[in-house]
Structure formats: structure tokens, C-alpha cells
Amino acid sequence: MPRAVDGTRRKDRRKKLLKQAKGYWGRRSKLYRTAKDAVAKSLSYAYRDRKVRKRAFRTLWITRISAGCRAEGLSYSRFMNGLKRADVQINRKVLSNLAIEDREAFQALVVRAKDALKV
User: Residue 107 to residues 3, 48, 94, 119: CA-CA distances in angstroms?
Assistant: First the structure.
């Protein structure tokens, strides 16, 4: 009886992993063992950084909103508090876009926030 060898499955599994490591530098893209470690690490970084990206964008939006508010003589925290009191429910992504692209609309929101803070 002939000997059964795990030939194609093993080859396919390795080929799949080396394909994931394509573009890596040096041995990391050529040798199975080093490629396996590099792919595992890169996948863990990718998982982590999908969460980090959300944090980074929120920080960027807050910075842009803050800059727009300060130009109108209001701090970011007071502006957000004013919007909350005025029951304006716009997320930070849209607010930052308004601060950059549509100054008039953003200024109108600042005025509403200031009015809500006075009351």
C-alpha cells in the first residue's frame, strides 16, 4: 500500500500564507517560517489599528471643531455644551466638515450654542 503524504494541503496552506506575506521585505516574504511570524504580527497590528483609526479621526474632528469655535470666540467644550442644551444632534464628523467647508452654517451653529448657554 502506498504511503499517504499531506502534499497538496500542506503546499496550499503554505502558498496561501506566502501570498499574504507578498511585498514584505527580505526573508519575510520568501521563507515560510519567518513569513508566518510576520503575517501573524501584521494581522494583530491590523486588528489593533482598526480601533486606533477611529480614535485618531475623532481627535482630528475635535481639533478642527475647536479651531472653528475659537475663531468665533468660544471654547470647544462650551460649544458642545451649548449644542447639547440647544438640542442640536450633529456628530463631530459633520461638525468638522462644516467648520472647514461651510463657515456660514458653522457660525449659525455657534450662535445657537451661545444663545443656549445664556439661558
Answer: 79, 37, 14, 19
17-44 confidence digits (pLDDT tens): 999 999 999 999 999 999 999 999 999 9
**Cell 506575506 identifies what position?**
21
Query: CA-CA distances (angstroms) from residue 51 to 10, 42, 45, 114?
Result: 34, 15, 10, 34
Q: Is residue 74 part of a domain?
A: yes
CA–CA gap between residue 32 and residue 15 (Å, rounded): 9
pTM (2 d.p.): 0.77
Sign of CA dihedral 94, 99, 105, 107: positive
CATH code of the domain containing 82: 1.10.1900.20
Residue numbers of the domain that contains 99:
51-119
